[in-house]
Fold this sequence. Notes:
Elements: H1 8-29, E1 34-39, H2 45-56, E2 62-68, H3 73-79, E3 86-90, H4 99-107, E4 116-120, E5 137-143, H5 150-153, H6 155-160, E6 163-167, H7 179-189, E7 194-197, H8 206-217
Parallel strand pairs: 1-4, 1-5, 2-3, 2-4, 5-6, 6-7
Helix pairs in contact: 1-4
The chain binds guanosine-5'-triphosphate (GTP) and magnesium ion (MG).
Amino acid sequence: MAIRRIDVRERVMEKNDELAADVRARLQAHGVPSFNLVSSPGSGKTLLLERTLQELGSELRMAVVTGDVQTQNDADRLARWTDRLIHAVVTGGACHLDARQVGAALEDLDLAALDLLFVENVGNLVCPASWDLGETAKVVVFSVTEGEDKPVKYPKMFRMARYAVLNKMDLLPYVPFDVDRAVAYAREVNPELVFFFTSALTGEGLASWYEFLRAQVHPAARPGA
Ligand SMILES: Nc1nc2c(ncn2[C@@H]2O[C@H](COP(=O)(O)OP(=O)(O)OP(=O)(O)O)[C@@H](O)[C@H]2O)c(=O)[nH]1
Ligand SMILES: [Mg+2]
C-alpha cells in the first residue's frame, strides 16, 4: 500500500502566515504599530503593560490582546487601567496565540482610533517563537531571576525578537545575575537585539521604554528622523 505523507503542521503554519499577513496589512493600513510580548511565565509582561497603560494611557490610545492557557486574570488586571479594549483569549491548553485569534480581536477594535496594539502571548519561551501574529515586532521579556543563559537555551525566541526587556532589575542586589553576560549571550544569537533594562515594579528604566513607544507611534519625533 502506498503511503502518502501529509505534513499537517506545515499547512497549519502556512495558513497562520496568511492570516498574519492579513493582520499586518490591516494594522499597517491604519498606521498602528503592534508588539508581541513573549517571555517565560512570570517575567513581568502583565505588570509592564499595566504600568504602560497607567503611565502612557493619557498620551497614547492602546489596546491589548492577552493570551492565557487558563483564566483571564491578566486581562482583568489590565482592564483596571484603561477603558479601551482588553481582549482575553483563553487558549484552553495551547501554548501560544495564533494569527486567527489576533485577527478576531481586531474585529472588535476601532483601528482608526488606536495608536498602539500590544499582544501578551502565553508565557513560555518555546512555542510563541514560531507563530507570526502579524506584529510589527516581538519583544522578549526576561528577568534577572531566570539566569543569564536563557538566550542560548531558547535561541529561537531571542532570534525572532527585535527587542529585549531585561526586567526585575530591582532584584539584582539579591540574585546572582551578570547583566553583561546575559546581554552577550543574547547578542550571540541575535546581534541586532535592542535592549531595555527595567523594573516594572519600581519604574526604573521605563522612561526609555515609553520614549521608544512614543517614537513608534510618531516616527517623525524619532531622534534623527
Ligand atoms: N520585583 C519585581 N517583581 C516584578 C517585576 N515585574 C513583575 N514582577 C512580579 O512578578 C510576578 C509576575 O509578573 P507578571 O506581570 O504576572 O508576569 P507575566 O510575564 O505576565 O506572567 P505570565 O502571564 O504568567 O506569563 C508578579 O508577582 C509581579 O508583581 C519587577 O520588575 N520587579
Ligand atoms: Mg501575564
